[in-house]
Write a structure and sequence with these properties.
- InterPro entries: ADH-like_C (IPR013149), ADH-like_N (IPR013154), ADH_Zn_CS (IPR002328), GroES-like_sf (IPR011032), NAD(P)-bd_dom_sf (IPR036291).
- It is a single chain.
- Helices cover 22% and strands 22% of the residues.
- α8 links the parallel β13 and β14.
- α4 crosses α5.
- It is of the alpha/beta class.
- It has ten helices and 17 strands.
- 49% of the residues are buried.
- Strands 3, 4, 5, 8, 9, 16 and 17 form a seven-stranded mixed sheet that branches.
- The structure holds nicotinamide-adenine-dinucleotide (NAD) and zinc ion (2 copies).
- The site of one zinc ion has 9 residues, from α2.
Length: 394
């Protein structure tokens, strides 16, 4: 049994104190897990665009500070709360922002991964058990003494910390022999993208695909489509530096909207005799979503929304446009049910069905987390892995 079991752990975390304020690495207290909760020692974490969007505070309703962001990680279970049966101390796990309780009506059906109790909720900031937080400050943001203050949770996970507490529904056990750094990618970006191609669109061999936004999520869509035998994968991005990486993930054609004098969908229709079979929107921009929708073939084209849209604007479609037979659907966490389906997905990745190494473009120590945010903001990284464990206090 861990000597820390049942005790408050004092450790370091990167705390977000306000929109666009640099994260502060500071000492915090992490309470023991309550019933059906798990306390996890985070080994590696990386930054997804969803962390960036929350940190910049674009959606005011979702703001909550101080907060520990982060949702893509891998770690080891330090201790579990009462009633937790499927993981135990010492198990290697990945946190998932979209949980699976296994008991609700949705979890019992095959068609959806949006668990009624633990599905992703950007507004959620407190634990379900008692409406409290498991994190609190020991100092103010300048390191000076102050009264202890609670720190909010984020996206069911909060991984920018040496220790975190999650609902057990949001923890998936992985093979201890798996390459841990790469397993962290399954916590969000790669599962989201590959799953959007496999589970939501169900991309078939010999079909054509357009991917808008070639960050980790969009490139994972491309990698998923490549693995399913798509014959043509058109990558669209305003940052030309993403094109080199795209080739590795099976992207066959590139379009930089800045190079065109016509809308992107017109160019895609020219290239594909009327439009692609599937398009994926992975930028979070509603105008791009419209281009993605119009770039599919009338009659059967299917568009999958993956990006997160912080804007209050609604879907940029006229209802009559749906009479052309094009479909639109959204995809959360790639449609994967985390506990039931990620372990076998991880196995497939380890067998090389999906290549994971190219997604880790940078590695930095935890202390450099603000530099890692900047790399993603500047479009210079796919995933920058931050090593956390080596800072652990014995
Ligand atoms: P990223 O920042 O790494 O990549 C976004 C890419 O889009 C960049 O390469 C950027 O150059 C490109 N882009 C932005 N605006 C563009 C435009 N107008 N035209 C063309 N290209 C443009 O982000 P990411 O981590 O890959 O995440 C992508 C999106 O997916 C984000 O909106 C993120 O919040 C969302 N997301 C959704 C889920 C889900 O479950 N649905 C999960 C994870 C991330
Ligand atoms: Zn994410
Ligand atoms: Zn459920």
């Amino acid at each position: 049994m861990a000597e820390t079991q049942g005790k408050v752990i004092t450790c370091r975390a990167a705390v977000a104190w306000g929109p666009k304020e640099p994260l502060v690495i500071q000492e915090i207290c992490v309470d023991p897990p309550q019933e059906m909760e798990v306390r996890v020692k985070i080994l590696y974490t990386s930054i997804c665009h969803t962390d960036l969007g929350t940190w910049t505070g674009v959606n005011e309703a979702e703001r909550a500070f101080p907060r520990i962001l982060g949702h893509e990680a891998v770690g080891v279970v330090e201790s579990v709360g009462e009633g937790v049966k499927d993981v135990k101390e010492g198990d290697y796990v990945i946190p998932t922002f979209n949980g699976e309780c296994g008991e609700c009506r949705v979890c019992k059906k095959e068609v959806s991964n949006l668990c009624e109790r633990y599905k992703v909720d950007p507004m959620k900031r407190l634990m379900v058990n008692d409406g409290g937080t498991r994190f609190s400050t020991t100092t103010n943001k300048d390191g000076g003494s102050s009264q202890s203050q609670r720190i909010y949770h984020f996206l069911n996970t909060s991984t920018f910390t040496e220790y975190t507490v999650l609902d057990s529904a949001c923890v998936v056990k992985i093979d201890p022999n798996a390459p841990l750094k790469q397993m962290s990618l399954l916590s969000c970006g790669v599962s989201t993208g590959v799953g959007a191609a496999w589970n939501t669109a169900k991309v078939k061999e010999g079909t054509t695909t357009a991917v808008f936004g070639l960050g980790s999520v969009g490139l994972a869509v491309a990698e998923g489509a490549r693995a399913r035998g798509a014959s043509r994968i058109i990558g669209v991005d305003a940052n030309a530096s993403k094109f080199e990486k795209g080739k590795v993930m099976g992207v066959t054609d590139f379009i930089n909207p800045k190079d065109l004098t016509k809308p992107v969908h017109e160019r895609i229709r020219e290239l594909t005799r009327g439009g692609v079979d599937y398009s994926f929107e992975c930028t979070g921009n509603v105008d791009v979503l419209r281009e993605a929708f119009l770039s599919t073939h009338a009659g059967w084209g299917s568009t999958v929304l993956v990006g997160i849209y912080a804007t209050p604007r609604t879907l940029p479609l006229h209802p009559m446009e749906l009479f052309d037979g094009r479909k639109v659907t959204g995809s959360v966490f790639g449609g994967f049910k985390p506990k039931s389906q990620l372990p076998s997905f991880a196995q497939q990745c380890m067998k090389g069905v999906v290549k994971l190494e190219p997604f880790i473009t940078n590695e930095l120590p935890f202390e450099k987390i603000n530099d890692a945010f900047q790399l993603l903001r500047d479009g210079k990284s796919l995933r920058c892995l931050l090593q956390i464990a080596k800072f652990l206090k014995k």
